[in-house]
């Protein structure tokens, strides 16, 4: 089993959804976790749960789009643990709206959280990686880096930007022992999936549609994303950098969409 013993990892957006699954697996694999989320209560709740389970964790309230808050959060993590070995840029927002109806403010909000936030957190951690002579960054992208849906221009632009930055940094800093990879989830059992079902006129038809269009026949779980992230953070992935690892149940490998049976 992949071990993260002795490693300190920051996970952004870890107060809910995929971030919780990632934080749980890191703690279970022996890593110390800094649970960052703009919702302080949610971050604290997750950190307390990890501690109750025997893990080492702290919670830090942080809006990843705010440069000052990011700098303070990273400093707080380093002060507590004395080092930072890994970063999972998971914080993000989903947004769907026709491009011609989208306001500049709506566009800027998605880019500022999903792309700027990834930049700010990574930039703030770099001095600590340099001091270690190593580091691993896992950026949560999306299957939208492979194919798109209508109304997702801002989200897709942000996630493609994250992928491009990941590859550029992987090349730039490989010689300094710092690895950068993307994890691109498919449809995962989070609030987004719950919202999709809630908005469906016929929930059974909705479930049947998605089962038909995910070769694995089901949505993924946050813990499954955590297991992939833990591998990328670990020394087991020492020769993996610049990759975009798709964890989507085969969704992007299917040539065309299918009607449910």
TrEMBL record:
Its EC number is 1.1.1.-. Pfam families: adh_short_C2. It is an enzyme of class 1 (oxidoreductase). Residues 7-163 form the Ketoreductase domain. It comes from the Bacteria. GO terms for molecular function: oxidoreductase activity. Keywords: Oxidoreductase. Belongs to the short-chain dehydrogenases/reductases (SDR) family. This is SDR family NAD(P)-dependent oxidoreductase.
